[in-house]
Specification:
Radius of gyration: 38 Å
Largest sheet: 6 strands, mixed
Shape: globular
Low-confidence stretches: 1-51, 644-691
CATH topology of one domain: ABC transporter transmembrane region fold
Structural class: alpha/beta
CATH architecture of one domain: Up-down Bundle
Mean pLDDT: 75
Number of strands: 20
């Protein structure tokens, strides 16, 4: 399923009757991202989403107290009264018109009459202000209280969930739910409700006025109105289509970014950019089509409205003139009554959308609130034993993680841990060691079997009590963002300072803490970021010790440390183990040797058990581990000795980058940091650099849009004409009033001509809307496509290390391409259109009104800013006020984020309650802010609603004076007032309906950030050395390397190895010893931090990247194929030239692939499916080999190319590989001895260096690590 498409099943999953945690999505994070893509298409999704909404509208209020309900009821009453104000004003308006016309015919004291009307208007205005204020502030206040309660309930429920639930629900998703989803509920139960009630009332009352005053005319107008609705409905449909059109391109982007290493290795960047661009065409077409259709419908709506006007005035005036049924005032009342009713109905619909999305959000949130956790950590139930000895036993435990039910982690595990002894768990990674520890803490319950403590099944014990017995120190200890003392205090509530100091001393932490300026009050930073690895580890040990635990669990507690810190921490651990039941998981011998019992794990079973020496004799799992390790340690120590004698003292600092922050701190002055280290520094400082983007300058955005200037010009012309329509309409409208309703014949003619004019204006406006819509959408979509292509190209040009950063995961990048690029157009075309439109609108209005009466115009102009403000305010009301709440929620969000990210640590310490209380304390500020906001917001709303009434009261009063004293014709009073008032409100609306301008600038800035980033290893430039007779002579000299995303783990530690052209080099060693890393350095996915890689004597950092990669073919363990035919996948091997079918076939024959392909119905045109899912592993592997062969590489890299295959396919693939190796330099990484034996050089690696190398026979003669591996037949892993 392409990742850009609207993928809804994950919403359903979360909703499955409270078993949400049993559902595993292959990509829990990805599937959430796919939903966020489609924010814009929510309207279109509504119909598919329906099954997921299971919360009725009134259920949203289930947490309201009596007081809240009273407030909401009063708010509703106010809204009802407020809604009837506008139609009420129409009655006044009708009387006013009649008065003016009577004055025109027979003189009466117009000034006095106008005075009366002014008072009416002021009265209605005051009432509206009061009602508006009450209806909003009451509802917002009530909602604030309910939302605070929902937040509390939700968070405290989430903190009670069992750990398995968190495995299936990504933390990112939970954080989003806590902020966005709860805000959605807020939108649905706050001001929107009262506004909906108000608008609906206006709708009903408007029609009532129409029918009561003149039913004939009302029916005529209603007859034409469905046409308007049709237009609006079709517009919503289109948004969905556009998203689906982008989905194809999005899936291309996702596929390419997910397999970026393959793309880079085969130099496919340019090809992929073209493929992506081809797929963008359809999205662009839809976008333009959508613009055209939007333009068409907007134009169509205006046309219908103007035709309606024409029809109504023509028919209405005949009723006034011929049958004398109506007065002119009635005509206006009816006409405006129906118009206002229709408009309010339209404005009420966004509220319905808010209700729907609120209900959708509430479904998930309320389900969580109602869900009972399987393992409830806060429950009081369960026994507490009086005496605890500390015997732990696993009886036939079988277990799989709820998030991956198909993978069995523990399989009939039986282990006994005696009290007071130290038991070490050893074994390859993934054997279930850490899982066993988590079962002891009761993070999970076993599927079969049981875990007992002193013979009691731990499921019967009280959880908080059980966990309080256990101290745990993990591989990556989690510290909370507070002081050192507080962090240690988390171990046990109410612990005295003396105990803290004792614990710190026991953990060997006391001395370093006292050296810090603030001692125990030093802040450790977010996630303990200010401390080095060893310091964090010791604080964590102190925290575990302060509990005075009966059972101590050490999960790789020293593995991430450098040798010095390790010795210190190890010493601390040895001190505290005495007299406690201790389980230690470790990979390093030094930590295991002196354990009382060593248990070897493999595939979820305990396969051996005994002391160090007994197990060495057994030659099993433990033996393999030991052999590789001791050799590695020896070699490392040798190296260290050499470097000490050498004059280069600085190597010391790089010996292990365990606490690389320290090394940065101390050595910045003494020697220049390598660029990559610097890069990391800047990375960790800019942890959340997404938020710090400066909005991009509009000039730069326009520069990208420059080629489309003709479109923008025509669009602007269209916009200008559209802007002029509003004032012209008021001109026509007042012209109608001016018709002398006395002389029938002249009148008929005049009325007909005015009605005709209405039709003309409608038609013109139709075409200009169409023009504006098409031109701007065309320029905008071309810009979007251009940015998407450039952005994608920039992404593919980054070095591979850039993709390791979690912020640049494929999901995040595809989202960025999908949404950011399309938001940018909000800052160019449509924005310009908006500005031109508004200027034309105001300009024309002012010219008209100054021309007819400058005095009255000046008076009204005083009100204009307020009118524009109110228009803007009303439009922003439609979007609701959730955005401001976000800032207030930050502090609470930080606590919840920290709590959810470290839920395991918190559960282990039994600190859930504390975090819930901290969170609730933080909720008070946003709540107070919301209450304050309710008042301000209510006042603003009331003001914006009543300003029109006040304007009218002042201007009609003054107009009456001008009519009486200066003989101004009364129709001109109407003309001036309506021209300015309509243009003012239109202006306000326009200003806020602009597609988010600020958002567009920020999206653009993010995009430019990407475009401006200079990759450290650039694929696109042609600089660098190239040479003709490329031989494939490879040398690694003293290579040291750490991955930029994990700077504290030294992967290569001074690798020295060389291969002559045509030779085969095999790397052997345990996982994580740097075998694959060396291959990646050769491909130049990364550059070494220290030392160099030479090819034919050239330093790789100076060689042209694409030239270098074009000489290397790679076959990896899990070959990545693209979603196209077999032939295309093989051709992918060489993207620099056109490849004939014969070459493809000969490559396939060499890879033992040809016969299998010919057996398929579509032969070489068979589609391999996404990620090659239609094929078996052996088949995929052979396609990958053919792909590597076709580029005729000088160097062939085989990274575990056969390890994932069964024996039969392995034979075939192995044969293919042996053929492919002939005459090429080859580097093989393998775990099976059969694949290595006939290599020219075998290099045994451990901990990032080569510990021995030579041919098979030489190494056997050495009787070193390799010999032990071969003779015991132990797996090399």
């Amino acid at each position: 399923m392409p990742t850009g498409s609207v993928k809804l099943q994950s919403i359903k999953h979360l909703g499955q009757e409270n078993h949400s945690y049993e559902v595993s999505d292959e990509e829990p994070t990805g599937s959430y991202i796919t939903i966020t893509h489609s924010k814009k298409g929510e309207k279109a999704q509504k119909n598919e989403e329906q099954p997921a909404i299971r919360v009725g509208f009134f259920e949203l209020f289930r947490f309201a107290t009596c007081k809240d309900i009273q407030m909401m009821v009063v708010g509703c009453v106010c809204a009802l009264l407020h809604g009837s104000a506008q139609p009420l004003m129409l009655l006044v308006f009708g009387l006013l018109t009649d008065t003016f016309i009577e004055y025109d015919i027979e003189l009466l004291d117009i000034e006095y009459e106008m005075m009366m009307f002014a008072f009416y208007y002021v009265g209605i205005g005051a009432a509206v202000f009061l009602l508006g204020y009450l209806q909003i502030s009451l509802w917002v206040t009530a909602a604030a209280k309910q939302i605070q309660l929902i937040r509390k309930l939700y968070f405290s429920k989430v903190m009670r969930m069992e750990i398995g639930w968190f495995d299936c629900t990504s933390v990112g998703e939970l954080n989003t739910r806590m902020s966005d989803d709860i805000n959605k509920i807020n939108d649905a139960i706050a001001d929107q409700v009262s506004i909906f009630v108000q608008r609906f009332t206006t709708f009903v009352c408007g029609f009532c006025v129409g029918f009561v005053k003149g039913w004939k005319l009302t029916l005529v107008i209603i007859a034409a109105s469905p046409l308007i609705g049709v237009g609006a409905g079709l517009m919503a449909l289109l948004t969905g289509m556009e998203l689906q059109a982008y989905a194809k391109a999005g899936s291309v982007a996702d596929e390419v970014l997910s397999s970026i290493r393959t793309v880079a290795a085969f130099g496919g960047e340019k090809k992929e950019v073209q493929r992506y661009d081809r797929n963008l065409v359809s999205a662009q077409r839809w976008g333009i089509r959508k613009g055209l259709i939007m333009g068409f419908f907007t134009g169509f709506m205006w046309l219908v409205i103007f035709l309606c006007y024409g029809l109504a005035f023509w028919y209405g005036s005949s009723l006034v003139v011929d049958t004398k049924e109506y007065t002119p005032g009635t005509l206006l009342q009816v006409f405006f009554g129906v118009l206002i009713a229709a408009m309010n109905l339209g404005q009420a619909s966004p509220c319905l959308e808010a209700f729907a999305s609120g209900r959708g959000a509430a479904t998930i949130i309320f389900e969580t609130i109602d869900r009972e956790p399987e393992i409830d950590c806060l429950s009081e139930a369960g026994y507490k034993l009086d005496r605890v000895k500390g015997d732990i036993e696993f009886h036939n435990v079988t277990f799989h993680y709820p998030s991956r039910p198909e993978v069995k982690i523990l399989d009939q595990l039986n282990v006994v841990v005696k009290s007071g002894e130290t038991t070490a768990f050893v074994g390859p990674s993934g054997a279930g060691k850490s899982t066993a520890i988590q079962l002891i803490q009761r993070f999970y319950d076993p599927k079969e079997g049981m875990v007992t403590l002193d013979g009691h099944d731990i499921r019967g014990l009280n959880i908080q009590w059980l966990r309080s017995l256990i101290g745990i120190v993990e591989q990556e200890p989690v510290l909370f963002a507070t002081t050192i003392a507080e962090n240690i205090r988390y171990g046990r509530p109410g612990v005295s300072d003396k105990d803290i100091i004792t614990a710190a001393k026991e953990a060997n932490a006391y001395n370093f803490i006292m050296d810090l300026p603030q001692k125990f009050d030093t802040l450790v930073g977010e996630g303990g970021g200010q401390m080095s690895g060893g310091q964090k580890q010791r604080i964590a040990i102190a925290r575990a010790l302060v509990r005075n635990p009966r059972i101590l669990l050490l999960d790789m507690a020293t593995s991430a440390l450098d040798n010095e810190s390790e010795a210190v921490v190890q010493e601390a651990l040895d001190k505290v183990r005495l007299g406690r039941t201790t389980i230690s998981i470790a990979h390093r011998l030094s930590t295991i040797k002196n354990a009382d019992v060593i248990v070897g794990f493999e595939h979820g079973r305990a396969v051996e058990r005994g002391k160090h020496n007994e197990l060495l004799e057994r030659k099993g799992v433990y033996f393999t581990l030991v052999t590789l390790q001791s050799q590695g340690d020896k070699a490392l120590n040798e190296k260290a000795r050499q470097s000490r004698s050498s004059p280069l003292g600085m190597t010391k600092s790089l010996s292990r980058a365990g606490s690389y922050r320290d090394s940065l701190r101390y050595y910045t002055n003494s020697f220049p940091i390598t660029p990559s280290l610097h890069h990391i520094c800047s990375f960790s400082c800019l942890k959340e650099d997404d938020e710090l983007v400066e909005p991009a300058p509009v000039a730069r955005i326009l520069k990208y849009n420059a080629p489309e200037w003709p479109y923008m010009l025509f669009g602007s012309i269209g916009a200008a004409v559209n802007g002029g329509v509003n004032p012209v309409y008021s001109l026509l409208f007042s012209q109608i009033l001016a018709v002398r309703f006395k002389y029938p014949v002249a009148q008929r003619k005049e009325i007909n001509s005015i009605c005709l004019f209405f039709v003309v204006v409608g038609i013109v406006s139709f075409f200009t809307q169409l023009l504006q819509g098409y031109a701007f959408s065309k320029s905008g979509e071309l810009l979007t496509r251009r940015l998407r292509r450039l952005g994608f190209q920039a992404m593919l040009g980054q070095e591979v290390g850039w993709f390791d950063d979690h912020r640049n995961s494929p999901g995040a990048l595809t989202t960025r391409l999908a949404t950011d690029a399309s938001q940018v157009q909000g800052a160019t075309g449509s924005q310009i259109g908006m500005i031109v439109n508004s200027l034309a609108n105001i300009g024309v209005a002012l010219i008209i009104s100054f021309y007819f009466s400058w005095k009255l115009t000046l008076l009204i102009l005083c009100f204009l800013p307020f009118i524009a403000l109110s228009g803007g305010f009303q439009a922003s009301m439609l979007t609701g006020f959730a955005k401001q709440d976000k800032e207030a929620m930050e502090a609470a969000g930080q606590i919840s984020g920290e709590a959810l990210n470290n839920i395991r640590t918190i559960a282990g310490l039994g600190k859930e309650k504390t975090f819930v209380e901290m969170y609730e304390a933080q909720l008070d500020a946003p709540y107070q802010a919301a209450l304050k906001k309710a008042n301000i917001y209510g006042a603003c709303y009331g003001f914006s609603q009543c300003i029109i009434f006040l304007t009218n009261s002042a201007s009609y009063r003054f107009g009456g004076y001008l009519v009486q004293k200066e003989g101004l014709h009364f129709s001109l009073v109407f003309r001036v007032i309506s021209a300015i008032v309509t243009s003012g409100t239109a202006l306000g609306r326009a200003s806020s309906y602009t597609p988010d301008y600020a958002k567009a600038k920020i999206s653009a800035a993010r995009f430019f950030q990407l475009l401006d980033r200079v990759p450290q290893i650039s694929v696109y430039n042609d600089k660098g050395e190239k040479w003709d007779n490329f031989q494939g002579n490879i040398e690694f000299i003293e290579c040291k390397f750490t991955y930029p995303s994990r700077p504290d783990i030294q992967v290569l530690n001074g690798l020295n190895v060389s291969v002559k052209p045509g030779q085969t080099l095999a790397f052997v060693g345990s996982s994580g010893c740097g075998k694959s890393t060396s291959v990646q350095l050769l491909e130049r996915f990364y550059d070494p931090d220290h030392g160099k890689v030479l090819i034919d004597g050239h330093d790789t950092t100076r060689v042209n990247v694409s030239f270098l990669r074009s000489k290397i073919g790679i076959v990896s363990q899990e070959p990545i194929l693209f979603d196209c035919s077999i032939a295309e996948n093989i051709k992918y091997g060489d993207n620099l030239r056109e490849i004939s079918m014969n070459e493809v076939i000969s490559a396939a024959k060499k890879a033992q692939l040809h016969d299998f392909v010919m057996a398929l119905p579509e032969k070489y045109d068979t589609n391999v499916g996404s990620q090659g899912s239609q094929l078996s592993r052996g088949q995929k592997q052979r396609i990958a080999i053919a792909r590597a062969i076709i580029r005729d590489p000088k160097i062939l890299l085989l990274d575990e190319a056969t390890s994932a295959l069964d024996t039969e396919s392995e034979k075939t693939v192995q044969e293919a590989l042996d053929k492919a190796r002939q005459g090429r330099t080859c580097i093989v990484i393998a775990h099976r001895l059969s694949t290595i034996q006939n290599s020219d050089i075998i290099a045994v690696m451990s901990r990032g260096i080569v510990i021995e190398k030579g041919t098979h026979d030489q190494l056997m003669a050495l009787k070193g690590a390799y010999y032990k591996l071969v003779t015991t037949g132990a797996p090399i892993s």
